[in-house]
User: Fold Protein NATD1 from Dermatophagoides farinae.
Amino acid sequence: MLHKFRFPSFIMNGNFYTIIKNNNNNHFQSIRLMSIAKNVDQVSPSSSDTAFKIEHDVKQQKFRINFDPDNEAFIKYERLGNNEVLLHHTEVPEQFRSTGIAKNLAMEAFKHFDDTQQKMIITCTYLQKVDKKRKNVVVN
Assistant:
């Protein structure tokens, strides 16, 4: 199951590059990725958005974003039975940190487990913080 999320490009607006992937049916998929600017002066806001796909890998028990073959951001979980899951680890490559990627992964994982009525036991401190903030949000 693939999900798209978008976040403002002023967060991710250094030098962009494109990876072209060939899937099994010879359809080509273009994924716009970025290379983080080394100097803050190189970063300037723009109006376009950048999208990455969040994939839920049930077999490996993780939600992930693949940036390239050597870089992925992910949240690992473990099924405990009785409709319980243990969310225990979040990792984002250093060059993609502080961009909102971990938060988007967390929100997708929380939404999935809420929608499937599974109890979440959260031991990852980052996920605990995000979960606490989302529960304190007042929706009008």
Notes: DSSP finds two helices and eight strands in the chain. Residues 2-135 form a domain with the Aminopeptidase fold (CATH 3.40.630.30). The helical segments are 101-115, 125-135.
